[in-house]
């Protein structure tokens, strides 16, 4: 069983890695985050929360938001319709590449690369009247924290550096796989990415994937089968071009963001979130990945 | 708990799918296999074997042999040396594509695509004096069946249609990632692919991956950690370009072959092998995948 | 020497090809053009114009406008600045592909594929106060026809189907190779494409490339050296993915448009324009290419 | 009219470029060539030969041999059969890339990239009893020099570093576009590449392409039409990935080799060969290209 001493030990062992990675700097608002942060939080099967280090500091969740978007789309669309517009396979390419998207006629490989998340956002835009507000409602309910907000400065900064994402949207539009106004969808998308949550918030928010679809508050978010499906997608596609290495080293379904957060799940046992802003060359938190690797090793827990 | 009635029920439910797929026909020797075969065998945690349908019929294991080759290489080479010559990431491309291999300077994406298995065979060739014989010894020990043999007609037929595999080997050689004679390595490789085993043999042979690295006979084949790593690789890369879909539908680490076999594992619980020669468009057994999907559903077992 | 009988003979011999190609239909406004048009006009070294068939009918010049844009950019920018933003090599890819553009960091292969013409338009936008008007002035002067106009319906129709071109622009912007507002540049670009000129207009307008840079009216448009350079670019890159075949069959520097026009030049001897709306699979006028092939054969004229 | 003073002036002006390029070093036998050589030879319309610098030194013709192979194939095969196995378009990719070849189902883009020359060699192998000897006969007749030989050391060295070319051959074989034994064809191919000729030899040998297909000795090698076609192919595809730049700067159909030689032609006027072993980043002779550029400028001769 995980306890505070375990988490503190993992935290302390990963601490010396700080300084070896690189904070994301493609937008100024992210580049300004203090590099020396390190936090870990676990939500156990009975819903208890344990944390160490900076686990209460909110940070930009970035691509972790793609999981929340997918959950929303799964509840709004029939399975068949959803998966006709986005695939379920690992991409084998950088997260924002257009090459594969062109070869595959505008159908993104999976919902966790940028193209896939943008098409999911396009789907949400078509069904939700206030997508940004609904997303905040969702993450507040999942984490039990009513104070979660979106960082407007980050969202604006993303928007001002959105040329490649716009290229992706227009390419999908040229194939008929993007229906709404590109600008409007991108604004929602960047707002979702710019939501700020702490390790504690995210460990709690992902509890439902360790708990067969039922969130901490007791509400069923998705069916047990859907919960397994999301975990399967996370295991094969959740870490960009590093999914295989992550499975090999950590062995948990997970999702990373360039803000330095990584969430992961051992179904039936626990949800966990780590955070450290410095990234490895694949764009995943360097010290964060190490903490998850240590956790899997110490607990002897992995899905494999 | 799985029992005979469960397996028989799954078998019967999948039976009507026969006729909807296509037997592999890229080599004449495989095209001649009767299309209407259907078998399933399970090896439970306590080592008991259950089977239904044609589960005792031997068939060509084809790419399933890539797992055995990897196991051999893991015991012959240091972790670092092995993974410097082959990656751990899903390929996102057809199993025999040269495009990615050229872009990535002759380092194959993972050991379960052709390029990766060929480089692993090249490594075995460099360390084993009689690689074909040693492979037979391995599969006989793992399955407890001393009568397993290689089908020389299939091996020769593969060799006579090996131009693309030769292209792959020479491309890796041009990048310095292939050291032995191409012809010699390909002959070993095709001999491994042409080994004939039944569902019963394969379910037993893969027991060690459900049993933390210890095979049915009691010998430790690989460490517990290595066993987790192999399962992780199978989950992310084991089904060619259909790994994500397989994870989504079945949720078990697995490996398929164009002979129509698929092996899969639920760590700590069971190993399973299904067989039906007709393939889906991704090259995986159509009825076989369905049987695994039904098994996961009925047992409520999946790694997710 | 070309004479009217020669042109009429070529026209008559190509006439039976009508019905074998396909009118461009990616925008409704172009799809409505009568398919059975066929015209040819030649401007000889002494400036005389000869024509046959529908050589006085105006049609949508489409990509032929890319040559006019390049000429403008050559007069507005230093050689080095211009060619740092667009290359001089054949693309070996469809005219609107994004793949190569991504691999080559947003620098288009040449000014005659869409990406290249869009970056040239972006450059014009940065230096000209009224780019659409200036383009009309240019083609009117070159052809000596003050009545040339832009077809606003076609321009609008192009704009309404511009998702792929928008993707191209944003991709270049993401690499820092596109500086102005995407919408504004695309509007200018589509206006240039939608200019309507006849074979007579275009044969006259391209006379300067057969005349060392001096147009029919006597004004030097570009230097003799630049004239050779433009012809060299046309010979290697002027016919999309069919430049080699066109050189092989026709042997003249040329530029085609999906409106069915093709202009070509024998330096020192003549400029020629053919028109027939039905296209071959490469997107070049089917009967038009045939007329040019016959002309080269009958006159024994080619640059090779 | 070109005269000795002109050639000597061009030679002297290019001389300071020596030291700025890099001698090909992918095979040891080529890396040993003295880097400071510089020669130019012209064969005028009346068959006169002029030369300056090291124009009588033989060097390894390398890819220039691809033109001779094509000429042989054009005389042995029907036009349609030949061009069904190799294309006529620029490749837009490095000369030895497999990517495009795989996408285009084993049909090489043109006869002047490695894949194309290898398929042409495969065709020659199928029709000629002693292909190496016949090639020597051809180049001896074309140049009027009976002492031309193949450098066996270079040929062997090429063969020992042939993994990538083998990959190309096997890939084409897998698509059904390569019929003979790979090793045998490669040996012929490398023998052709290893032929040693001087600038004088090559300027004379290419005279037929400036003379409507008739060689210096008076024999018609190919028809006038075929001569134009070969020049067209050279103009669009003769300089690897630098054909556009070469056309822009020099404006003559030409073919380069990694031995540092470049041949070029102004139809009806002259054939020329330059040589200097140091290459630019595209693999074309650095000082050689400069000499051709100066020649075009001084003579005012170009096809454009």
UniProtKB/TrEMBL annotation, chains A, B, C, D:
Q: Which residues form the signal peptide?
A: none
> Organism's domain of life?
Bacteria
- Determine if Nucleus is one of this entry's keywords: no
EC nos = 3.5.1.2
A Gene Ontology biological process in which this protein takes part is: glutamate biosynthetic process
Q: Which InterPro entries match?
A: Beta-lactam/transpept-like, Glutaminase
> Which UniProt keywords are given for this protein, alphabetically ordered?
Acetylation, Hydrolase
- Tell whether Phosphoprotein is among the UniProt keywords: no
Q: Subunit structure of this entry?
A: Homotetramer.
**Entry similarity comment:** Belongs to the glutaminase family.
| PANTHER family reported in the protein's UniProt record | GLUTAMINASE (PTHR12544)
Q: What is this protein identified as?
A: Glutaminase
